[in-house]
Amino acid sequence: MTTGWLDSQQMRAWVRLIAVLELLPGVLDAQLRRDADLTHFDYHVLVVLSQGSEGQLRMTVLADRTNATLPRLSHVVRRLEERGLVARFPCPEDKRATNARLTEAGREKLAAAAPGHVATARYNVIDALTPEQLDQLADIADAVLGRLDPDGALTRPFE
């Protein structure tokens, strides 16, 4: 099977998507590091935990919802635990599993970090687009996510 090269329209879209994927994470990470002493992934873990029942999730579920391997997630959660933002404990339903829970300090950190993060997201993405473009962006992302995340693991907690 031979795959054809991208035509000029396809290449234009692809190169711009790659540029956004390369630049946006650094912008988000820099703001959160500067203003909240969190990485973007730390922040994402706290947000996803906050969406869980009583601010807690099984580590395997948290890994799925953050698209992290268990070793990476364990490392990050350990660091957050050392800072008092997250607590780990045995899963009551399955003693072989571990749950993570957002602590009160974690909730406070998240609440303090959220305004700056939202302002950065607004400035760099949301406010750069018209309402029609925002709808188009959501539709485009849904089409791509239909292939990359067909079960909706990464977006389900936010719907």
Automatic annotation (TrEMBL):
Every copy of the HTH marR-type domain together lies at 7-146
> Signal peptide span per the entry?
none
GO biological process terms, alphabetically, are: response to stress
Q: Which GO terms describe its molecular function?
A: DNA-binding transcription factor activity
Q: Which Pfam families match?
A: MarR (PF01047)
Q: Would you tell me the protein name for this molecule?
A: MarR family transcriptional regulator
